[in-house]
Structure formats: C-alpha cells, structure tokens
Amino acid sequence: MVKGISNLYGKLRLLFVALVVSMGLPAQNDTTFVANGNPIITYKYTADPAVLVYDDKVYLYAGHDECPPPHQHYLLNEWCVFSSSDLKTWTEHPVPLKAKDFAWAKGEAWASQVIEKGGKFYWYVTVEHGTIPGKSIGVAVADSPLGPFKDARGSALITNDMTTEYTRISWDDIDPSVYIDEDGQVYLFWGNTQCYYARLKENMIELDSPIMPVQLPRFTEAPWIHKQGEWYYLSYASEFPEKICYAMSKNINGPWEYKGILNEIAGNSNTNHQAIIEFKGDWYFIYHNGSINTEGGSFRRSVCIDRLYYNPDGTMKRVIMTSEGIH
Ligand code: FUB
Question: Could you tell which of 128, 174, 304 is best to mutate to test the pocket of ligand 1, judged by most ligand atoms within 8 Å of the CB?
Fold first, then answer.
C-alpha cells in the first residue's frame, strides 16, 4: 500500500515536471534530459547561446524566447542555464537571472556571456535601460556558474549615450562578449551595426579604456572573441538575415583580417548567434536556428551544436549545420 502511494506520488511528480517543462515556464528545479540531435533543447525556445567551460563541464547560458505564437516579436524576460559533462546529457537549472533583476533596467533579456575570474562568475548582459533610452550592458556576479547572480554595479556598464559619436541607433550597445587575455587583461567586445571594444579593470565591472571602434565588413551584431594557438578570432553576425563571418589577428587590438563566412544563414531564423568553445580537446560551434516544428522561427529560436574545425593555416572551415548534431 505504502509502495503504491509512493509510486503514484512519483508519477504525479513526473507529470507535474513534464507539464511545467512543456509549458516553457521558468525552471524551478533541475531537469535532466538527453539531447537528440539539433536543436538540443526542444521543450522551450532558447536563443543567443553563450558557453562557459569550467571544471570539466560546460555551462550553456541562453535567452528564453517567450513570444507566444502567432506573434512575431522579441519577448525575452530571463536567461536560462544548462550544464553538461558530455554535451549530450544536459541539466537545466533554475532560472539564474532575469532582465528586471537589474533595478535600473526596463527588461528585454537579450544576448549575454558569462566568464570566470578569481573564482567569481561575471555575467555581461544586454537589457533595455529604464531611463537612458536604448539598449545597455549590465554585469551580474555570482560565486557559482549556476548563480544566484546579482547586479554587480547597481548601474549599467555601457549605455547608449556613451556611443552616439559612432551611430545614432539606440540598439548598438548589445551582445557583449568578454575575453581574458594571457596577460590577465580583460576585454569587452559588443555592438550592433558598429562593433566596439574596451578594456575592463581588474574588478571586471568598470571600463579601463575609452570605447574603441572595430572595423569589420558588413558587421551586424553578435561578436564572439576566442583564441586558438597564436590567432585571435573575432566572429560576428553579418548582414540580415544573418550569416556568421569572422576575422583573425595576432593581436587582440587588431588590425583584423576578414576571412569570410563561417556559418551560413541558420534554418528559419533571421538572426544567427554563435559561441565557440574548445571542450575536452574538440572545438564546437553553438548557435541558434528556428527549426522547431511548427511554431519555431525568428522569435522562437532553439540552440544547436555542431563541430568546428580549423585548417592548417589557422583559418576555420565553414561549419556544417546538421540535424543529427554532434553524436
Ligand atoms: O535575442 C535578441 C537579439 O537577437 C540578440 O541580442 C541578437 O544577437 C539577436 O540574436
């Protein structure tokens, strides 16, 4: 009898978790699943992937695309975090950060990136500013890659009024990508239409240089900076609908040499947003497409993973997007 009740309780609990997950509600508990090709997450819409490799695990941070069909506009209020030791079995953890956790922000959890420094985890995010018109970049901090994260400054790090000499649009200060160089210097890259970069102070929450423009052909948004061997790579979304293109340099301050298309337009999505990582000796290209049947698209996107390969001269081979994914 007791066993029967506990079986029933177990089934009801599973049913509840499945219901919550299928409704795409904020994750309150850990939820483990096995990816079956691309997209890797099929029970909710996830966009703008950023990946942190830490302690033999990957942590995937993504915006939660919440726009209900048939509407066609961005609706992202929060970011999600998933972890994995093999890129196949994933655990989604409770929602670690929402746009409105920044008291000065109006909302809109656009693209972001997390990086570890000195045992702390810094999360650079795009949000709509509450009082300075336009998009802005904030930074949250935590003692664990899973959070809880809290606003590290109490104000935005970058606001639209800081970049008006380069472009008059109000959404150019988006899509932060952060990189710690071998000498310990931290760099922040970001932008839409115009790519920018600046050095960060050791405290990770203040600029340590003027904001500098980076000249890249047909730059739209989504810069991602990584290094392999002696080369720095600056990949970015180009034109619209977006392809991912890239440039290379032996110096993070440039000059950057344009190398062409890395990833073609991703199925059924007019944006394409990449993270590039090395994990356990292999390289991966993480991006989003709009391929979930039948409601997926540019405002209901889904994170995918495929392999990334280099040529002997250091250039990157064009990514082959697959339905099968990496296993
Ligand atoms: O998800 C909102 C915006 O769409 C991101 O900030 C851009 O990179 C594009 O993917």
Answer: 174
